[in-house]
Amino acid sequence: MSRRNRAAFERLMQQSWPRVYRLCLGLLGDPAAAEEASQQAFYQAWQAWDGFEGRSRADTWLYRIALNVCRRSYGRTSACGLADGMDSVEGPGGESTQLERSERQERVRRALGRLPEPQREVLSLFYLDGLSGKDLADLLDCPLGTVWSRLHHARQALEDIIRNEFEDLIA
Fold first, then answer.
1. Measured distance CA(163)–CA(165) in Å, rounded
2. How far is Cα 26 from Cα 92, in angstroms, rounded to an integer?
3. Which of 29, 141, 157, 169 could form a disulfide with 79 if both were Cys (CB 3.0 to 4.6 A apart)?
4. What is the rounded CA–CA span in Å between residue 156 and residue 150?
5. CATH 1.10.1740.10 in the chain, residues?
6. pLDDT tier, 140 (very low <50, low <70, confident <90, very high otherwise)
7. pLDDT of residue 17 exceeding 90
8. CATH number of 1-81
9. Of 98, 166, 87, 170, nearest to 128 (Cα)?
């Protein structure tokens, strides 16, 4: 690998590490598993860097590698990290103890775990990683309309699970 290519990859790594880690954490739910998946994604990207043809943005290409690493390792962890973003959720009176928040997060995590993998992914990528619809379409290699449809169905499915099994979460 030439010095120029190495420098470009190092820049990509420095700029993308936090987002790749958040993606992995959002999909896997476990910080140690997310760290391992992030490292594996960057290792695979490093191995394939000379073959990167530039048909997509480098960060989108890297995200796709990380997504595939997480898909392969999802069976090793049962947690779903999307619920971790609920730290600031408060109870009906505006007050919430740490125990109540932890319990609520765990129930949302279980509900998310019941969603099909594509729905978990699209929710995590959109809400935790803040990817735009266009970025999601590029990453998931599907039309933009499909992204919005998947998001709609994922939200609806999550709401149904919560409504049917954890109705006190929405009361």
1. 6
2. 27
3. 29
4. 10
5. 1-81
6. confident
7. yes
8. 1.10.1740.10
9. 87
Cα 133 → chain centroid: 14
Q: Is the pLDDT of residue 91 over 50?
A: no
- Count Cβ atoms within 10 A of the Cβ of residue 101 and give its class: 0-12 exposed, 13-18 middle, 19 or more buried: middle
**Confidence check: pLDDT of 103 > 60:** yes
Q: Tell which CATH classification among 3.30.460.10, 1.10.150.130, 3.30.70.1280, 1.10.10.10 matches the domain 93-171.
A: 1.10.10.10
For residue 154, pLDDT over 90 is answered with yes
HEC profile for 142-166? CCHHHHHHHHHHHHHHHHHHHHHHC
